[in-house]
Amino acid sequence: MEYLIVIEPDFEAGGYVVSCPTLKGCVSQGKTEEEALENIEDAIKTYLQSIEDLKRLKKLRASL
Fold it and tell me: Using CA atoms, how far apart are residues 6 and 30, in angstroms rounded to an integer?
C-alpha cells in the first residue's frame, strides 16, 4: 500500500522532517532526504504493525 508523505527541510536543526498525514503522529527525520525517506518507511511499518498488535490483543482479551 502507498501512503502520501510530506518532507520538509528543518531549518533550525538541519536535515529533513518527514510525516505521513494519513497516519496521525507518524513522523520521522533524517540528515538527508534519502535518510528521511528511509526512516519514514520504517516508521510507517512500525505504526501499522502496532495497530495489528493492538487488534490481536483486543481479540485475545475478548476471548478470555
Answer: 13
Question: Beta partners for 17?
Answer: 8, 29
Whose cell is 528521511? That residue is: 36
Asked if 43 and 28 count as a contact pair (C-beta separation under 8 A), the reply is yes
Task: Specify the number of domains making up the chain.
Answer: 1
**Domain carrying residue 59:** 6-63
What's the whole-model pTM score? Answer: 0.85
Residue reference for cell 501499522: 48
Over residues 3-33, the pLDDT tens digits come to: 999 999 999 999 999 999 999 999 999 999 9
